[in-house]
């Protein structure tokens, strides 16, 4: 629930900057990139880690949620800038961000680069990927989408995410049960 609310807030921040204040998407993308880098820099200088496995103090929790909030605003700005501002379209931007995620993961598997760095790069890229997929599904065919509409697209995302959460929860539950029996 917290991630959903943060995603909505981050999206609203970007949309209001663009639609109400006239801030170009490329400017928002650059600003949010610097804010995210500053957040990571401050977090790392204070805590000497950016690992999500080490979020065990209120300060780290605050820094984590700050990074997540900025990530959603950045992802919305970057996704909209690429698909709409650069006139690439929703399908191509979906393929672009999905491809970038695949490349980062492949580099991680092959070169064994830092897992924390890999996590955050992929995490940042998932928001513009999600925004591009959402726009591809929800926007009318006239505007380059598939025309499912916002309600149907939201329902599709809800069902998809719910199934993933249930699947992952069942895997964790089985793992805990197996480990408990082995003790």
Largest sheet: none
Terminal CA distance: 34 Å
Mean pLDDT across residues: 89
Outline? globular
Tally of helical segments: 6
> Which regions contain 5 or more consecutive residues with pLDDT less than 50?
none
Give the number of domains. Answer: 2
What share of residues is helical? over 70%
Based on secondary structure, the structural category is mainly alpha
Rg (C-alpha, Å): 18 Å
InterPro entries: DUF347
Keywords: Membrane, Transmembrane, Transmembrane helix
Organism: Aeromonas sobria
Transmembrane segments: 23-43, 63-83, 95-125, 145-167
Write structural notes for this entry.
The protein folds into 2 domains: 2-147, no CATH class; 149-183. Helix content is 81%, strand content 0%. It is globular, with a radius of gyration of 18 Å. The chain starts with a helix and ends with a helix. The relative contact order is 0.09. The chain has helices at residues 2-19, 25-47, 58-85, 90-111, 115-138, 149-182. With 183 residues, it is mainly α. The chain contains 6 helices and no strands.
Q: Quick gist of this model?
A:
The protein is 81% helix and 0% strand. The chain has helices at 2-19, 25-47, 58-85, 90-111, 115-138, 149-182. It is globular, with a radius of gyration of 18 Å.
């Amino acid at each position: 629930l917290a991630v959903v609310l943060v995603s909505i807030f981050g999206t609203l921040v970007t949309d209001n900057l663009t639609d109400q204040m006239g801030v170009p998407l490329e400017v928002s993308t650059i600003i949010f990139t610097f804010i995210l880098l500053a957040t990571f820099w401050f977090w790392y200088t204070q805590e000497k880690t950016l690992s999500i496995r080490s979020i065990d103090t209120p300060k780290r929790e605050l820094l984590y949620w700050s990074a997540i909030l900025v990530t959603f605003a950045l992802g919305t700005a970057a996704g909209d800038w690429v698909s709409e501002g650069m006139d690439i379209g929703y399908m191509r931007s979906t393929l672009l961000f999905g491809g970038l995620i695949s490349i980062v993961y492949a580099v991680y598997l092959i070169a064994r680069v830092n897992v924390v760095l890999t996590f955050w790069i992929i995490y940042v890229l998932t928001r513009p990927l999600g925004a591009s997929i959402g726009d591809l599904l929800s926007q009318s065919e006239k505007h380059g989408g598939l025309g499912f509409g916002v309600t149907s697209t939201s329902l599709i995302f809800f069902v998809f995410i719910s199934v993933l959460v249930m699947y992952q929860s069942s895997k964790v539950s089985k793992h805990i049960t197996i480990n408990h029996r082995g003790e």
